[in-house]
Write a structure and sequence with these properties.
With about 325 residues, this protein is an alpha/beta fold. It has one domain: TIM Barrel (Alpha-Beta Barrel), CATH 3.20.20.70. About 40% of the residues lie in helices and about 15% in strands. Strands 1, 2, 3, 4, 5, 8, 9, 10, 11 and 12 form a ten-stranded mixed sheet that branches. Strands 6-7 form a two-stranded antiparallel ribbon.
């Protein structure tokens, strides 16, 4: 039986009714806030390509962590901006590196907040690539050892979870083995499993000063037209020990999130990346869109597609209003 017996507008009549039957909900505890931590003291420098986001010194990162804890945000994702870069990204593995020091400082001041670290070399290398360079190409297997060392150093410094974003083959297994061997069997891995070679990363590369100095990352990040390959990447990461898998970017790859949700029974994270954020901010500044509605609509779409976890630069802002 259809109209007039069934009137779907009945449950849309008021905000209370709409809220009562809402299928997809966004809550602060399901969001992760990415932050950029760099050298210095008292530094809170706005990122030119990401208005409203900042490069933070460690003391300022502690302040943000306290705020995130108070607001009930699910966690922080830390990216390190080292004072010096070299060919092998040595600061990534340094026990006194920028992220390691930030972890210890935050952990001393914040007790009830999940601290997650990005595990990659691109932010630390002088050439801007995600691994060791040999013959002007990233050497996959030589990179695995450094990624594992970096992850272990993060765990020692207080990371609750590590998140490899490099897209090297076998990195999850290498990191899992190293964590277990060094006494961190309970440290979970959130793998950037389906990370595409996307043009949406531009603002982030400005923020982290990590654009490749030659070539590009298409030999290791995924080719955007490929969906079946993403399922292979996710399956392999799960087999190697990933506890959470991620699709990045989120909005242009909602189909990948949805397909992964149907196939796999592990938590899925969707990363609303810098380009997605900056496009919203630019369009809002120009007066072309209703900013707050667009923010909620885009994040709702990512959640509706099947993401359990939202990694977004809007996490703190939304946690104040949700």
């Amino acid at each position: 039986m259809a109209f007039p017996i069934h009137r779907l507008r009945r449950l849309r009549r008021t905000e209370r009714l709409r809220s009562l039957v809402r299928e997809t909900r966004i809550t602060p505890d399901a969001m992760i806030y990415p932050i950029f931590v760099g050298p210095g003291k008292g530094v809170r420098k706005e990122i030119s390509s990401m208005p409203g986001q900042f490069t933070l010194s460690i003391d300022r990162a502690v302040e943000v962590a306290r705020e995130a804890e108070k607001l009930g945000v699910g966690g922080l994702l830390l990216f390190g901006l080292p004072p010096h870069k070299d060919e092998t990204g040595s600061d990534a593995c340094d026990e006194s590196g920028i992220v390691q020091n930030a972890l210890r400082a935050i952990r001393q001041n914040v007790k009830d907040l999940t601290l997650i670290t990005d595990v990659c070399l691109c932010e630390y290398t002088s050439h801007g690539h995600c691994g060791v360079i040999k013959h002007r190409d990233v050497d996959n297997d030589a990179t695995l050892k450094l990624l594992a060392e970096s992850a272990v150093s993060h765990a020692r410094a207080g990371a609750d979870m590590v998140a490899p974003s490099d897209m090297m083959d076998g990195r999850v297994a290498a990191i899992r083995s190293a964590l277990d061997r060094e006494g961190f069997p309970n440290t979970p891995i959130m793998a950037y499993s389906a990370k595409y070679a996307s043009a949406f990363y531009g603002p982030f590369r400005t923020a982290a000063d990590c654009a490749p100095q030659f070539g590009d990352r298409r030999s290791y990040q995924m080719d955007p037209p490929n969906a079946r390959e993403a399922m292979r990447e996710i399956a392999l990461d799960i087999q190697e020990g990933a506890d959470i898998v991620m699709v990045k970017p989120a909005m242009p790859y909602l189909d990948i999130i949805s397909r992964a949700r149907r196939l796999y029974h592990v938590p899925i994270a969707g990363y609303q990346v810098s380009g997605e954020y900056s496009m919203i901010e630019a369009a809002a500044k120009a007066g072309w869109i209703e900013r707050d509605r667009i923010v909620m609509e885009t994040l709702t779409a990512i959640k509706r597609a099947g993401a359990d976890i939202l990694i977004t630069y809007y996490a703190l802002e939304l946690a104040k209003t949700l």
